[in-house]
Amino acid sequence: MTRGLHSANVLLAQIAETPQIPLLPTTGRNIAGKIRTMRIPTFYVDAFTDRPFSGNPAAVCLLNSWLDDEGLHKVAAENNLSATAFLLPRGKDYEIRWFTARCELKLCGHATLAAGFVVFNFLRPEAEAVRFASRFHGALTVEKSGDSLAMNFPALFPQPKPEVPRELTRALSQIKLRPSEIWEVNQIYMLVLDDQRAVQNLTPDFEAFQPLHPHAVLITARGEEADFVSRYFAPGYGIAEDPATGSSHCLLTPYWSQRLGKSRLHARQLSQRGGELWCELSGDRVLLQSSAVLTMRGTLSI
Fold first, then answer.
1. Residue 22 in contact with residue 42, Cβ under 8 Å?
2. Residues 185 and 205 in one domain
3. Whose CA is closest to 272, among 238, 243, 239?
4. d(CA 99, CA 190)
5. pLDDT at 1
6. Is residue 256 helix, strand or coil?
7. Looking at the structure, do residues 296 and 231 belong to the same domain, yes or no?
8. Co-location of 267 and 295 in the same domain
9. pLDDT by residue (tens digit) across 279-300?
10. How far apart are the first and last CA of the chain?
C-alpha cells in the first residue's frame, strides 16, 4: 500500500507545479468567441491498484448541475474509459452517476473509488470520509484507511441457478466452458470454475456473451496467492472485459466468505491490467479496500 501512496504523492506534486485548473465547472466562449462552452474539471484515476497503468481506469467529472442523459453519454464516450463518474455537490455529500459510452450503470465500484480519491486529494483533503448518493443503491461511503481507501457497498447474495437459461447454455457451449456452479444476482451470471488456471486461461467469446445482455458474466475460482480470483465480462454494456470490478465483489465476497468460512478475504482480478482488493463481509454490507493513483487532470470543453 505504501508504494501506491508514494506514486500518488509524486503525481500530485507534479500537478501542483503546473498552472492551476479550476475545480468547478466554468462557462465561456470558444476560440472564435461565438459559441458558449462549459468546461468540466476532469480527472483520470486508476483504481484498485497502487501503480499507474494498471487496475481499472475511470474518469471523474465535476458538475454544478446535471447534464441530460445524452450529454452524459457523450462525455463518457469522449473519455473512452470503462466508466465515467459524474459528481454533483450537495452540501458535504455528492450525488453520483456512472456512465459508459453505451449506457448508465446501476453500480460501479472502481469509479466510486476514483471519485473518493478525487474528493480527498482535491476537493476536501481534510475529510476522513465522503458519502455519495446513488440512484439505485442509496448512500455509498468511501473512507480513508491508512494509505488506502475503503468503500462501504451493499452486499449482493447470489442465488443458485438449477435451470440454466437457454442463451447462457448456448454461450457456454460456444466457448466450451463447464462451470461447476452457476449463480445469479443483480443481472450477473456468476460461474464457479475448478481452479485459478481455468480462470486465467479462459479465452472469452464476446459475441457469444452479447445476447446475454442485460446480464454480465463473472467467472471465479479459489485463488493460489489470494483467497479467490475472478474475471468480469459485460460486452452488452460496452465493456468487453472489465480490468477490475468493484461491484462484482459485492457478490463474490458473500459467496466466498460462506464457502471459505471467513469474513475477511484477499481478492485478485486476473485481467490483463489486473486488480487487487481486500474484502470484508459485515452483515448486509461489503467493505472493499484498495488503492488508486492519478494519471491525468484537465478540463473537458463541451
1. no
2. yes
3. 243
4. 23
5. 38
6. helix
7. no
8. no
9. 999 999 999 999 999 999 999 9
10. 37
What would the DSSP string read from start to end of 97-156? EEE-SS-EES--HHHHHHHHHHIIIII-TT-SEEEEEETTTEEEEEEEETTEEEEEEE--
**Grid cell digits, residue 233:** 465480462
**Peptide linkage before 41 cis (omega within 30 of 0):** no
Can you give the pLDDT at residue 32?
58
Name 248's bridge partners: none
| C-beta separation of 264 from 289 below 8 A | no
Range of the domain at 273: 159-283
Per DSSP, the three-state class of 66 is: coil
The pLDDT tens digits for 207-240 are: 999 999 999 999 999 999 999 999 999 998 888 9
Nearest to residue 46, comparing CAs of 115, 114, 119, 116? 114
Does the pTM of the predicted model rise above 0.70?
yes
Mark whether 111 and 177 lie in a shared domain: no
Question: What does the alpha-carbon distance between residue 278 and residue 131 come to, in Å, rounded to a whole number?
Answer: 20
